[in-house]
Amino acid sequence: MDGHKQVVLLTDGMDTRPYRLKWPTSTIIFDVSPERVFKKAASELEGVGAKIPRGCMFLHIPLECPNIQQSLHAKGFHGNRPSIWAIQVMKGFGFCSNYHLRLNYYTNLQQS
Fold first, then answer.
1. What's the CA gap between 55 and 53, in Å, rounded?
2. What is the CATH number for 85?
3. CA nearest 26: which of 64, 65, 59, 54?
4. What is the pLDDT of residues 45-59, one digit of tens each?
5. Cβ-Cβ contacts under 8 Å for 72 (sequence gap 6 or more)
């Protein structure tokens, strides 16, 4: 995976950044979000012709999965390589209630 860029988006499942931003070639975008919301939003975006930029990969990790770290690694995330993380505070998904605990968890995940 040399040369690949890593972006991790922790969102509510309706994030359009993967479709509307001009990502550098070889960018791998990991979207961690609620499965049900992500599937509906992805279907609607595909329905209007939205596409991930050529040369990029877009991978979804369900927020509900029991081990997000393991799932990220299984899909190719490398914590020892530079990555960009964007965190969208998600009211109603349990993210706000323990925001500091989760932020600490995800900060440590970058180093694994």
1. 6
2. 3.40.50.150
3. 54
4. 999 999 999 999 999
5. 8, 30, 32, 61, 109
